[in-house]
Amino acid sequence: MAGEHCCFLNIPPTRVTLARFAEVWIDAMNKPVPLLTPAFTPLGESQEWPTPDLLHCQAITAGSGEPHWQTKPQRYADLCQLLFLSEGQAQFEIDDQSTPLNAPAIQVLPAMSVHGFRLSEDARGFVVTLAAPLLAQLQGQLGSALNAQALAESYLAGDDATYLHSLFSALQREYVGHQPAREMLMHALVSAIMVWVSRQALQRRSACQRPQRARVYFNGFIQWVEETYRQHVKVEDLAHRLGISVSHLNGICRELGGQPALQIMHERQLLEAKRLLTYTGMTIYEMSEMLGFSDPTNFTRLFRRRVGISPKAFRDRLKAEQDGEV
Q1: Which end of the chain is more exposed for a tag (fewer CB within 10 A), N or C?
Q2: Structure pTM?
Q3: Which fold has domain 229-326?
């Protein structure tokens, strides 16, 4: 925001290069930073950062009182946080919205979001904070379609809980350790975590879009059936016209129409047959020819199989019902 300092590092809002940002970051982390306190001290962390990195990793362990489980609402201009909850529960306040989280799950807290959280006494997990240059590097690798770090979303770990715990645990060990190639491994672990989060975001986005796309495909299919039901077009041809596979089309038809594509096509033919039997005096032969059947026997067989009686019996029953009403 114009005129606003970086609330974490107290850096003026000028555009800086990655190298310059790293220099300022290293200088800041070698000093006590009072403005860091609301983010980490409530979880038992000291004010001074131990290493000159573009990330911070902190384990969530059992505290000895309420201050260890709660942070006040705060906003960081150049930082994104990932909270992995492996055990317990959390209650987040994100931009005036209250959001509960049950373990195992990850909560993304984007830069510039106003957020605070309260953890249950049995909560376990990790908080990872990523600086703007590292975020930009990760985003460049992931691509704009996977911009999960910009959304305040939570993702249940599900079957990946053990895998995620191993990633965060390894990141925490590297962060507090001094092994060779430490920075390289930390960035690799953060990348793996962000790939997982981004894939979850993409799957969620696709799931939200799928019903709308399915409805478009289904409506297009119904339109094609209406135009071609007398021509006995193959299901494969209609799927090709829609640009999807036969199995995909059948799945959509079952979901939205209650039956596979071929049966929907047959139902349209039989609807027209019932209209002709009810409102015209056409013979079965004329009717089958009009509906595109090369042999009246095939028409009669389909009608009997789907309706339960022959076309003639259907017409006779209609006539008897009409005579009974007179």
Answers
A1: C
A2: 0.52
A3: Arc Repressor Mutant, subunit A (1.10.10)
